[in-house]
Amino acid sequence: MLRFQQSCVFFTLILATVVHCENSKEKGKYEVIPIAGRFTHAEGPHWDHRSQKLYFVDIAEQKIRKLDPVTLRVESTFIANGPVGVAIPIADAPDQFVAGAGLDFVQVSWNGERNTTRSPIHVLATVDQNHQGNRWNDGKVDSAGRFWGGTIGPEENEVVIPNQATFYRIGKDFVPEVKLRPVTNSNGLAWNLQDDTFYYIDTPTLQIVAFDYEPISGTISNRRIAFDLKMNNITGYPDGMTIDTDGNLWIALYNGGGVIKVNPHTKSLLLFVELPVKKVTSVAFGGPLMDLLYVTTSSRGLTKEELNKEPYAGYVFVVKGLNVHGLIANTFEMGAVKP
Ligand SMILES: *[C@@H]1O[C@H](CO)[C@@H](O)[C@H](O)[C@H]1NC(C)=O
Ligand SMILES: *[C@@H]1O[C@H](CO)[C@@H](O)[C@H](O)[C@H]1NC(C)=O
Q1: In sequence order, which residues have a C-beta less than 8 Å from that of residue 191 and are 6 or more positions away?
Q2: Residues 315, 277: contact at Cβ < 8 Å?
Q3: Of the residues 104, 138, 239, 244, which is catalytic?
Q4: Catalytic: 244?
């Protein structure tokens, strides 16, 4: 377990629980606030800086959801192709997304203004056709507008059959290029501000690995371990990840009840942000100043008793007062030819 001296006070207000924490290692106060829910398995938060909205997916519900952080209203659209692992806006097209749904990489048209039971879909590519039990999982777009994302193997009771999945890059020709194979549960990814290092998580390895990154060709090389959860006695599985402008990584801990802040150069744990739920799935910085940490969580598979104990399981949270800034997320470049 983590060995910080940390004191947290959980206040239950009429509308929300606010958690005030003081951490002995990093001076300062931050607040953990549940802002919307409950969702089944919220994942893949993407702060859309253009519209100041938070997009995320609800995987098994096959939904892309949009949260307005001012009104706290949520709108959703259903994607018929299968479980939605990731959705990212397309550059210069406010009502267009690329998404990984089932094994399809699709273009989705949705203006986010209302709830729709079905959005117009165009399939751009299909992956893992010889692994029908797989599905798309987490992904992001690089500084050149190319999509990087991977699949997850068949799941049985939250255990994934190993080495069935692949991590891909998809550019404007929509041809999936294999980047890492095999992987088991392709998850969090991040590029640093300098755009010379790429960080990646294959969840069951319990590690965050770093690669040298060449941004023009989009190549990764020189794989090494940046942080090892097991060596640091950390409970839970590394899931979604983001990075701040100082180069520190923020990693959601599935079944670990929080988010860790890690220095990948010293391989040290800097902070544990405790949440009042166990299944923490992913993180993204957002807000007008890019200083708010949005955190998605899951209520998947929890019994009624467990849900009573964790009334905010499956909520989206915001963490305020961390005193760091994130990088604006990239959007997918379609190129000249739009199908
Ligand atoms: C969409 O659905 C959500 C959840 O039912 C609801 O809160 C919201 O008001 C709906 N939005 C619109 C524009 O009808
Ligand atoms: C992890 O736990 C082991 C056994 O209790 C201990 O020897 C080791 O120092 C711990 N490592 C860290 C980084 O806390």
Answers
A1: 142, 143, 197, 198, 199, 213, 215, 243
A2: yes
A3: 239
A4: no
